[in-house]
Amino acid sequence: MAKTPLLQVSDIALTFGGDPVFEDLSLVVQPGDRVALVGRNGSGKSTLMKVMAGLVQPDSGTRVAAPGVQVGYMEQDPTMAGFATLGDYAASGLDIDETYKVDMVAEGLKFDPAGDVNTASGGERRRAALAKLMAEAPELMLLDEPTNHLDIEAIAWLEDELKTTRAGFVLISHDRAFLRALTRATLWIDRGQVRRAEQGFEHFEAWRDKLWEEEDQQRHKLNRKIKAEARWAVEGISARRKRNQGRVRALQELRAQRAAQITRQGTAAMAFEGGSTSGKKVMEAFGLTKAFDDKSIVKNFDLTVQRGDRIAFVGPNGVGKTTLIKMLLGQEAPDEGSVKLGTNLDIAVFDQTRAALNEDMTLWENLANDPELGVSGKSDQVMVRGNPKHVVGYLKEFLFNEAQARAPVRSLSGGEKARLLLARLMARESNLLVLDEPTNDLDIETLDLLQDILGDYDGTVLLVSHDRDFLDRVATTTIAMEGNGQAVVYAGGWSDYRAQRGGDFVEAKEASKPLAKKERQAQKKTAPGLSFTEKHRLDELPDVIDKITAEIAKLEELLADPELFTQQPVKFQKATDALVARQTALSDAEDEWLILLDKAG
């Protein structure tokens, strides 16, 4: 028997600013679907997700959610007016007896529910929005870049939660490892059309390249046919042409078909160009020690960075990765120890906060008013590695059109802002790149290109990232900041670090901080008493057991009807299967209750 779709959108058309975003778009999300939604920055992924959530109304077409199905959407920039704390916002859709779920999710995502919404950072607000969605546990979750602003430990927690959920979800993410681990189907937005493959993201690139190859072959055949028909039209005599007007019309239709084909968007013309060569030894750190109040950043840390190294800094949010980099660059003084910088350094910095971009200025103005690039005022030129270029021409190299050049930066998507910041950075010559979360919001194709150009870059790279796949592709050395002042140097990228360390990343936290999931599991084996989560589970299990017992009684009453098997065999089989499942669930719940009761003493 066919499943009832959780959500269906049919024949959607949507236009922004005169240009169609979608035309005749249809898709279906089934129960239990785990779908990657992929596409280039600006292709309309977030817009489509808002249409699916019912937050954006299309110009035409329909959106239908199954009766009783709750569709949850994680807002990128949630409105928190009227809420005092992040926890108040996250719990706003829950019954009072369910608000404890926010504390459980907050523990995994590592944010403070008591945080003031007025002073919360963008990352904290987004984590609260994600916590709200996870705590509400809708039947269909729409997740738009949920891993942004999460550290690797929180990403791993979220990955574990989504692996075990029974809900369906559609996921936008730049994190390849996250997508590969979770998805079983792929929706690909390409030039206003949506294609679906019943394969997870792991197979996306091979599928995409195959479709592009077939498209190129069809275009080549069409061009050859047009060329042959055009030759006939030129060489045929007038009388013959008159007798074959249908063939002439067919040629016109072929040309119209070719004109209607939408050209694939190319890749940005990105390049980091090294300036003058730095000294062989870029920097040396001796005995660096730094603390803020009672929080230790590093203790007695030594490091030597050679020209051409790719150094990755990993660790939980707030552990001090940016502080350590500032000390290495001589921008912040250590409490103890010293740093010796090499000669002839030309430093370029990618700031994850996008602070270098003025949101109220246009893209043009952001490039043409940059003292570091040697331009100011109303110039229409930008100096690109010492050579003047027209601003619009340079922006086109980064896939921005002329209309966007005159639009304010605030109108851009997160990925487009990252691409604009890369355009500013790449206009400079440098021999030391500092990249603080460069992968946030970038599409897969741009990430591939960024990885390639970093591989060809002649200078040295200091990299902060929570993207495990990107770290593996780029880093030659990983510095793991594990809390309590521990900063350990490992050879290789993320996977090499894990292999050398002998397991998953676990932060050495102070006792007062929330425990990570794996720490909680370890603590269960050694520490007496119940955790916060276990206590709530113990409290709710009697009701769970009573509910399952009642369901079993109803099923047994139904199966007691002697005519059910002969008159409704399908219903009999479903009831039998359900009874077996509920009896197993009852046994599991009773075992769990006994284990927790014993642990509670």
Defining traits:
601 residues; six-stranded mixed beta sheet; alpha/beta; 4 domains; 21 helices; Rossmann fold
What can you see in these coordinates?
By secondary structure, this protein is of the alpha/beta class. The chain folds into four domains: 7-206, 3-Layer(aba) Sandwich (Rossmann fold), CATH 3.40.50.300; 213-260; 273-346 and 431-501, Rossmann fold, CATH 3.40.50; 532-600, Helix Hairpins. Helix content is 42%, strand content 22%. It contains 21 helices and 22 strands. Strands 5-6-7-3-8-9 form a six-stranded mixed beta sheet, sandwiched between helices. Strand 8 and strand 9 (193-197) form a beta hairpin. Helix 3 (100-109) crosses helix 4, helix 7 packs antiparallel against helix 9 and helix 19 runs antiparallel to helix 21. The radius of gyration is 29 Å and the shape is globular.
The low-confidence runs, each spanning 5 or more residues with pLDDT under 50, are 260-264, 505-528
CATH H level of the largest domain: which superfamily? Answer: P-loop containing nucleotide triphosphate hydrolases
Q: What general form does the structure show?
A: globular
> Could you give the order of strands across the largest sheet?
5-6-7-3-8-9
How many DSSP-defined strands?
Answer: 22
Indicate the proportion of strand residues: 15-25%
Rg, nearest Å:
29 Å
CATH class of the largest domain: Alpha Beta
Q: Helix/strand-derived class?
A: alpha/beta
Largest sheet: 6 strands, mixed
For the record, the CATH architecture of the largest domain stands as 3-Layer(aba) Sandwich
What is the residue-averaged pLDDT? 80
Q: How many H/I helices?
A: 21
Fraction of residues in helix: 40-55%
- The CATH topology of the largest domain comes to Rossmann fold
Task: Give the total of domains.
Answer: 4
| Distance between the first and last residues' Cα | 48 Å
